[in-house]
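Q: Please design a sequence for this.
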């Protein structure tokens, strides 16, 4: 028996939203090295203080696609971000701080 996984893993609403979101890969460099962040930036770019949604450790920035679409349709700028591999909290915070400086 063949397992029909494709429809369950990729619903139509996700395929539509994924095509409407722009993915950016931003490389930031801090005192501990270099890291690549994946960022989905939606909503009006004139908003200087966006809502930032940080992906969980076991997921990607795409897990928030429904929230991102709903909030951006109401005029709220949303950044859904997925961080690089960091081996300490301090390194992650430093990399995130540099991402914020880059994104503003």
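A: Design:
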């Amino acid at each position: 028996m063949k397992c029909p996984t494709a429809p369950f893993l990729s619903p139509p609403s996700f395929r539509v939203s994924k095509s409407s979101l722009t993915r950016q890969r931003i490389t930031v460099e801090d005192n501990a090295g270099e890291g690549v962040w994946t960022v989905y930036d939606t909503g009006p770019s004139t908003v200087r203080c966006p809502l930032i949604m940080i992906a969980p450790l076991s997921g990607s920035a795409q897990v928030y696609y429904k929230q991102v679409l709903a909030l951006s349709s109401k005029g709220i700028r949303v950044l859904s971000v997925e961080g690089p591999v960091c081996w300490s909290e301090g390194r992650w915070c430093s990399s995130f701080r540099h991402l914020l400086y880059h994104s503003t």
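Q: Thanks. Anything notable?
A: The first helix runs from residue 6 to 9. The mean pLDDT is 80.
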